[in-house]
Specification:
209 residues; alpha/beta; Rossmann fold; eight-stranded mixed sheet; 7 helices
Length: 209
């Protein structure tokens, strides 16, 4: 399959405090690169990657990396609209970034699709030994259970669970939007851009908002 052929386009946002590693998670997943000196995101940036589904369909994940600083909040909030999935990222070595997760959840509730697919991610697991862990696995599990979120820990530096985290979001969106659309409730409220892969311009074939 070519890099440009895909059946559906899913918009996904990375959300969390500044410095938790959202940009490096994005670059690890889309380009398989990591930069220890990567600069803080200003506003928003995005990258894409094709993710194959088990039924042969190809999903183009359009992943938006949003700035975590307060001064960019008005800009980033606008990019939540139309997002089908969000990765809520905290730094396992910084407790404050974990404590702010409920605030990010409220922002998504206020500005994003009500059926948005969420995954809670504790990044920088590779630094636990060197810097000391401030967020325990048990704390994370309890928060995930409270908000009914899937959870995993990742390392953008060594790639641990990065692929799994992004692919899970894409697969969960696909299942919710398409494989459940023949049921009485599944798929009806998802805002999905369906793209005809045979169109040379790659423009959406239909859009159900």
């Amino acid at each position: 399959m070519s890099d440009t052929a895909f059946d559906h386009l899913f918009k996904i946002v990375l959300v969390g405090d500044s410095g938790v590693g959202k940009s490096n998670l994005l670059s690890r997943f889309t380009r398989n690169t990591f930069s220890p000196d990567e600069k803080t995101t200003i506003g928003v940036e995005f990258a894409t990657r094709i993710v194959p589904m088990s039924d042969g369909k190809a999903i183009k994940a359009q992943i938006w990396d949003t700035a975590g600083q307060e001064r960019y909040r008005a800009i980033t909030n606008a990019y939540y609209r139309g997002a089908l999935g969000a990765m809520l990222v905290y730094d396992v070595t910084k407790a404050q970034t974990f404590e702010n997760v409920p605030r990010w959840l409220r922002e998504l509730k206020d500005h994003a699709n009500r059926d948005i697919v969420l995954v809670l991610v504790g990044n920088k697991a590779d630094l636990c030994e060197a810097k000391g862990r401030q967020v325990t696995e048990e704390q994370a599990r309890q928060l995930a259970e409270e908000y009914e979120l899937p959870w995993m820990e990742t390392s953008a530096k060594d790639g641990m669970n990065v692929e799994d985290a992004f692919v899970k979001i894409v697969k969960d969106i696909y299942t919710k939007a398409f494989q459940g659309q023949n049921s009485t409730t599944g798929g009806r409220n998802m805002s999905v851009i369906a793209v005809d892969a045979n169109k040379p311009d790659g423009k959406p074939g239909c859009c159900n908002n």
